Amino acid sequence: MIKTALTSLDGLSKFIDLGQLTSDLGGSFNYDHSKWINMRMALEKFLYEASSLLAKLEEIQDGLDREDFADTLEGLKDQIKHNQHVKKWIIKAPVEVLQEEGEKNPQYDKKPEP
Fold first, then answer.
1. pTM
2. In sequence order, what are the residues at sequence separation of 6 or more whose Cβ sits closer than 8 angstroms to the Cβ of residue 23?
3. pLDDT tens-digit readout, 69-90
């Protein structure tokens, strides 16, 4: 059951630690909404790119796991061509770029302090 309490700003510290309140509420918690929005937008972009890359790599893995072998010389040539294309894509995959982005922004894995 949730209990609601109405209190003044002065009485707020009885219920919430001042370290968890921003300065406009009489606390000491340092919060910049613009910085938070920028960090959140960067995180969303990073997560989207990482999940897209993962989906593509899983799709490639599923394709490679299939044991469909060509019955004709022409089919074999097509498979080789396709595999070469896949190899080029994997080599160019932005894994290192995403890793650097994740390491550059350690706040992505910051956990709230207790």
1. 0.60
2. 29
3. 888 999 889 989 988 988 888 8
The strand pairing partners of 22, in sequence order, are: 29
What is the phi-psi region of residue 26: left when phi exceeds 0, alpha when psi lies from -120 to 50, beta otherwise?
A: left
Q: What is the pLDDT of residues 93-105, one digit of tens each?
A: 888 888 888 787 7
Q: What is the b/e burial string over 27-63, where b = at least 16 CB atoms within 10 angstroms of the residue's CB?
A: beeeeeeeeeeeeeeeeeebeeebeeeeeeeeeeeee
Residue 76 near residue 70, CB atoms below 8 Å? yes
pLDDT of residue 37: 92
CA separation for the pair 64, 86 (Å, rounded): 10
∠ Cα 44 48 52 (to 5°): 170
Q: Structure tokens of 74?
A: 């022409």
